[in-house]
Design brief:
Elements (H helix, E strand, L loop, with lengths): L1 H10 L11 H14 L2 E5 L5 E9 L9 E8 L8 H15 L4 E7 L3 H9 L3 E12 L2 E11 L7
Parallel strand pairs: 3-4
Antiparallel strand pairs: 1-2, 2-3, 4-6, 5-6
Length: 155
């Protein structure tokens, strides 16, 4: 997973990180996220990591406890049709079972493949933040998308 994330740091605007964290830091941060909410990793039969997806808290304030932010990164050298969808399906089912109400995804507006994937997965655009991040010599908009997976209710 570290190699996949490192690729996106160096070669894309899928993340606005500029520098790779060291592998131990990356693993620690990911473990901390996975201690609270679910995540899934896809491998080939030859143990090549195809990608990973996980949920993290949108905010640590109690009012947001039923809202999560999703992260997904796929191996750029081993794309398999449907891999992203399968990871998201597993993740969505686990979050539904935990009573999460809505999932959010923040996507760089120039990442047309990700926007298309999320729309196909029934996410709706709820905000566009103009010129939010600067990377690779230019300013990039970020699109915030949401998918409701459980009914809204009072607690």
């Amino acid at each position: 997973m570290y190699k996949i994330y490192s690729y996106y740091i160096a070669n894309s605007t899928a993340t606005f990180e500029y520098e790779k964290p060291n592998e131990a830091e990356f693993s620690k941060e990911l473990r901390n996220e996975l201690n609270c909410l679910p995540g899934f990793i896809a491998y080939t039969d030859n143990d090549i990591c195809l990608g990973y997806a996980y949920a993290s808290k949108y905010s640590y304030e109690k009012a947001y406890e039923k809202t999560v932010r999703l992260t997904i990164y796929m191996n750029p050298h081993h794309h398999q049709k449907g891999g992203s969808s399968k990871l998201y399906d597993y993740l969505e089912q686990a979050l539904t079972d935990q009573g999460i109400i809505q999932m959010l995804a923040s996507i760089t507006a120039s990442n047309l493949a990700s926007l298309k994937f999320h729309k196909k997965s029934n996410f709706i655009e709820i905000a566009r933040l103009e010129k939010l991040g600067f990377k690779m010599g230019e300013w990039h908009d970020e699109v915030l998308m949401r998918k409701q997976i459980n009914p809204y209710k009072n607690f």
